Amino acid sequence: MRLEQAGRIGVPVLDVGCGTGENALYLAQQGHEAWGVDASSRAIRKAKAKSKGRGIPVTFRVADALNLGRLGRTFETVIDSGLFHTFSDPERVRFVDSVGGVLHRGGSYFMLAFCDQEPADWGGPRRVTQEEIRATFREGWTVESVQPAKFASKIHRDGGLAWLSTVTRL
Ligand SMILES: C[S@@+](CC[C@H](N)C(=O)[O-])C[C@H]1O[C@@H](n2cnc3c(N)ncnc32)[C@H](O)[C@@H]1O
Asked: Sign of torsion, CA 90 104 36 145?
């Protein structure tokens, strides 16, 4: 929401790993052309039902984030809330290629991922360090910022500790 309010969302925008689509629906509600993709057909069914029920147009598709080229579309912005940190090291390499293949030159990729300061006592996905983020996007990208942020979460009283990264495709 803060990125949208700051005018950082160029269109069209793709929410990769959108789950049931709340972020894409929010952006579409603000007037942006939005797409959402997820590997889970169940999540996309729910996202489509929300889109229809709320009367907010979003293009939702079942798709693999590691093969975004199959969408046959390119985007000015890609947002990722909670997907990157689920990938293994080899998948990260494929993911960055995949996102780079659908993002316009100069376009922005915004990523929210659990950070290394988030306690490990509850399990959850991989934690990500700033250094890993910068190393992953070393070639063909500029990491503009990696800022402390919070995940809204049902298991944290005050949110989960995250990095919000802003990365631009060269
Ligand atoms: C933690 S959830 C985040 C959902 C949503 N972005 C949010 O912020 O609530 C991660 C999502 O990534 C999806 N996902 C995992 N691997 C994927 C892949 N290879 N391609 C597309 N989606 C994937 C999962 O199905 C899940 O919906």
From this structure: positive
Looking at domain 2-169, which CATH architecture does it have? 3-Layer(aba) Sandwich (3.40)
- Domain range summary for the chain, segments of one domain joined by +: 2-169
Whole-number Å distance, alpha carbon 20 to ligand 1 midpoint, is 9
Q: What percent of the chain has pLDDT over 90?
A: 92
Closest protein CA for atom 14 of ligand 1? 17
Task: Tell me which of 40, 83, 150 to substitute to probe ligand 1's pocket, judged by most ligand atoms within 8 Å of the beta carbon.
Answer: 83
Q: Rounded to the nearest 5 degrees, what angle is found at the Cα of 132, between the Cα atoms of 161 and 79? A: 60
| pTM for this prediction | 0.97
pLDDT digits (tens, 9 = 90+) for 8-34: 999 999 999 999 999 999 999 999 999
